[in-house]
Every structure is written in C-alpha cells, then in structure tokens.
Amino acid sequence: MIETVTVQDVEAARIALKGVARETPLRPARWLADKVGGPVDLKCENLQRAGSFKIRGAYTRMVRLSEEERARGVVAASAGNHAQGVALAASMLGISATVFMPVGAPLPKVAATRGYGAEIRFIGTAIDECLVAAQEFADETGAILIHPFDHKDIVAGQGTVGLEILEQRPDVKTIVVCTGGGGLLAGIAVAVKAVRPDVRIVGVQAAGAAAYPGSLAVHHPVSLASMSTMADGIAVGRPGDVPFALIDDLVDQVVVVDDETIARALVLTLERGKLVVEPAGAAGLAAVLDDPAAFEPPVVVVVSGGNVDPLLLLRVIRHGLAAAGRYSTLTVRMPDRPGSLASLLAALAAADANVVEVEHARADPKLHLDEVQIEVQVETRGPEHRDEVLARLAREGFHVTTG
C-alpha cells in the first residue's frame, strides 16, 4: 500500500517547522501580470533557509525519527538542494549525515552541504544513480534514508508552502509549481485542494527530464531512458510512488518547457524581479511566459530555489539573452584584405549593434586562401532589432550565419 498524505499531515508539519523554516514572501511580478492580464505573485522559496524549499520536507522527516534511528545517522541522495536541506536539518537535530551527489554537482551546493557538516560521496551523473547508492549505504550501515521526494513526511513538509500561499493570496486561482520527483507539487496539491478545490494547480517539468506526462497518461510511474536539461534540480528520471498517486488524483495539469524558455525566464527574473533563481526554480515562470493566456489570475508561481553556480549563471544568462534576441553570435566569411573587418564593424555600428567580442579564423580548411572567417558577438535590443541588423548586413553584401 502506498502511503497517502492529508491536509492534517501538512498542518502537523507546519507546527513541527515553526521556528525552523521561514514563511517566505510573495512578491508581485508586474512584468508577468501584464502578459497574463491580472495579478501574478512569486512565492520566493529561493529566499528559504539553505536556498530552497527542501528544508521543509527534510526537517519534517527527520524530527520524527526515534532516538535510536537518529543515532544510526541519515543518508540522502541529491544534486544539491535536498543535500543542503538534509545537512542543515541534521546539524540542527544533532544527527550525522552522509549525502551522495552526482559527479559534477554544482560547486556552491557541494560547499554549502559540507558547510552544514554532512559527509559527501560522489557517484554517477544523475540523481537516480545516487539514490541507488544511498539505499545500498542504508542497507549496509543501518542509516535512515531521507528520500528527496518519495515519503509522506517529505510531501507533508513541502505542502506547508501551499498553506502559506492560501494565507498570503486568499483569492488565488492558479498555482504553478516546478516539478521533479513530485514532492513539492503533491504537497501543495494536498494542502490547497482540501481547502480550495477550485484552485487550478499546474506542475511544470523541463522537456529534457519530463517523466510525469507519460506516467500520468498510463496512471503509474514510468522511468525515462535518458535526461538532458540545464535544470538539474528537477532532473528526476522516475516519479516517486507517494507523490505520483497524489498528483494523479489532485493536480489539474503538468506541462513541459524547454531550456531556452527556462533561460529566458531566469534572465527576466534576475533583471525585472531582482531575484537570483536557479534554472529548476525558473521552470514555472517559463511556463507562464510560454502561454500566459493559459493561467487564470490571480496566479502564484512557486520559485523553488536560488542555489545556482555563478559559472552556470553566466552561461544561462548568455543563453537567455540569445533566446530573447538580445545577444547573437554572427559568423561572417569575407575577403582577407585590409579594411574588411573595418567595413563589417562599420555596418554593425550603423545598425546600432554593440560589438562585445571579435575573433578571426584563417586556418579553417573550408576557407579559400584569400578568405577569413570572423566571428562577432553582438548585443541587440530584441528580436526585431536583431533581424534589422541581419537584414542590413545582407543588404551590404555580407554572408552571415548566426549561432
């Protein structure tokens, strides 16, 4: 039998979390409200302790362990946010913690997890491999596995986000939740639907790691053969049994978004919302950007975490700017003679495009002996301006490819 979760479980978790988890704020997103046609608020779990909602579920699970279980220690598997939540909860409760993380996990998440006192072991490249290793460690040592999403206490803890949303925005009509294994989405659905069954709840997955749509179609969890997304925090290959049963019953829809839209949403949240958000945390925002008319206001979008590697943030910002038509790489083949580069730069200046970087290539075997390939990175004001720049270069005889 799969354990279920009730709103009473969520309310009990809220009592247990008093003084532990922050009641994170709702912040209005007027830049999204204009598109939706009504109020849009961001539920800022990126401002939660340890940088994400995960402390809610991890502490709820661990505070209920017996003294004998606490003495055996805990083990977890995580790409970063659950690791930090478990490590922080363990340090607060005086429990030793071991965390299995994928090779290549974001360095700031690794450093923060260590900083909370957990022992880290690296294995594999995906959370599913880490889960297998964590379960084997639990079997061998007797440590208690703190699953990132597939346990009723975890789901109940995450559901406290839903209780806060109902208090902070009583007239909410739509709640949008980024989704990996499903613990956050399931918990919010339990909390909200018990009180306001009319509220539409939408889960959002990255297209490169979308296990829920196919699973919901057949009403049981189905594993993905492979995953590829920048949103590592929601890259989970198989829905959890506990959250899946709740989501199948309570959630109105699960949609998918691509990495380009996630990157664009992250840039807009940074630029317009003044919030640092990781790619997984921006998935809900990406869904609203994709199809604003599909979300009846007032809308609350859960921003689940802000633990992003600065190097990844640089790449995502550039990717997001490119997706928004504000940053382009232009490759131009032209005669290798004095004045060629100057003519190209003059054309770009006349089109009001800002040149960021220029590179020459002469050794490409595809080039003729008297040719040079110039790669120019330029800033533009948006898709229309980018198209104007390309059109001007074409009119002046430049052969341009974009990337």
Largest beta sheet, briefly?
A: 6 strands, mixed
How many structural domains in the coordinates?
3
What is the CATH architecture assignment of the largest domain? 3-Layer(aba) Sandwich
Proportion of strand residues = 15-25%
Q: Count the strands?
A: 14
CATH topology group of the largest domain: Rossmann fold
Total of DSSP H or I helical runs spanning 4+ residues: 17
CATH class type of the largest domain:
Alpha Beta
Based on CA atoms alone, the radius of gyration comes out at: 24 Å
Keywords: Lyase, Pyridoxal phosphate
Pfam families: ACT (PF01842), PALP (PF00291)
Protein name: threonine ammonia-lyase
EC number: 4.3.1.19
Describe the secondary-structure layout.
Blueprint: H1 7-16, E1 26-28, H2 30-36, E2 40-44, H3 54-63, H4 67-72, E3 74-77, H5 81-93, E4 97-101, H6 107-115, E5 119-122, H7 127-141, E6 144-145, H8 152-158, H9 160-168, E7 174-178, H10 183-195, E8 200-206, H11 212-218, H12 241-250, E9 253-257, H13 259-271, H14 283-290, E10 299-303, H15 310-323, E11 327-335, H16 340-350, E12 354-361, E13 371-379, H17 383-395, E14 399-402
Parallel strand pairs: 2-10, 3-4, 3-6, 4-5, 7-8, 7-10, 8-9
Antiparallel strand pairs: 1-2, 11-13, 11-14, 12-13
Family: Belongs to the serine/threonine dehydratase family.
Protein name: threonine ammonia-lyase
Pfam families: ACT, PALP
